[in-house]
Design brief:
Order of helices and strands: EEHEHEHEEHHEHEEEEHH
Shape: globular
Distance between the termini: 22 Å
Number of strands: 11
Largest sheet: 9 strands, mixed
Oligomer: single chain
Helix content: 25-40%
Length: 240
């Protein structure tokens, strides 16, 4: 276990097996358009999304749900050290949350789910990689179904995924009474196809989706774009 700086005096505990990537940082930024009181992150890993939302005071309290014992221990250590009662960790399968979390009450649910559908592509090497990248422990439908159940009316579900699964996201959100409201694509640089989509849906909302300008990770010179510098701003000295 080691401590990774997040800026503003905050750190997060990570390990060789459980760390975080750009997609999780982008999802946290995408989800933090307004402050919420209650947040839950499904498949929380080391707890990065909860940690970022609490660091920036975009959530008053956060719950991280994580099936891996090792990852849950890392998140719990971070919560105890930096966030106290604001951050709690539930070591559980997301399909086994009844009685552990109050359904129908959360203002924001986030998830950085496995990107590859069950049976799609060659499996990654290592059990942890398979769980993180393939739908072996949970499916996209289960993420959206559970996320919808946790949300209060008008609450938001924010997820990131590969662009090829965008149609699945929109169809499943509507199936579970979460109306897609905001979409943003992420490309490495201008002129390249997106490698990530960020989608927000709202529980029991009317139809009508806003398509935001694309986000580019790098500028034309290979440096981080101004928006990426903003997103990484609080800890740019450690990470850029």
């Amino acid at each position: 276990m080691k401590r990774e700086p997040l800026g503003k005096g905050f750190f997060i505990n990570v390990s060789k097996n459980h760390t975080f990537g750009t997609d999780a940082v982008l999802l946290a930024d995408f989800a933090s358009v307004k402050k919420v009181r209650t947040h839950v992150d499904l498949g929380a890993g080391c707890g990065i999304i909860s940690a970022l939302l609490l660091r920036d005071e975009k959530a008053s309290s956060s719950v991280g749900v994580e099936i891996s014992d090792e990852a849950a221990e890392l998140a719990t250590a971070t919560a105890k050290e930096f966030y106290k009662e604001k951050f709690t960790v539930v070591n559980s399968d997301l399909n086994d949350l009844k009685g552990k979390l109050p359904f129908g009450t959360f203002e924001l649910v986030t998830c950085n789910p496995p990107y590859k559908a069950s049976g799609a592509g060659i499996l990654s090497s290592g059990d942890r990689d398979i769980v993180a990248r393939h739908e072996t422990m949970c499916t996209l439908e289960e993420v959206i179904s559970v996320g919808s159940s946790l949300l209060r009316s008008s609450g938001s579900l924010c997820i990131c995924q590969r662009p090829e699964r965008l149609a699945d996201i929109i169809c499943l959100m509507r199936q579970y009474k979460v109306e897609p409201k905001r979409l943003r694509t992420v490309s490495k640089k201008e002129g390249e196809e997106p490698w990530l989509v960020l989608v927000e849906g709202k529980r029991d909302s009317k139809s009508g989706m806003r398509v935001m300008p694309p986000l580019f990770v790098y500028d034309g010179k290979g440096n981080y774009s101004p928006e990426m510098l903003r997103i990484y701003g609080p800890y740019k000295e450690e990470h850029l």
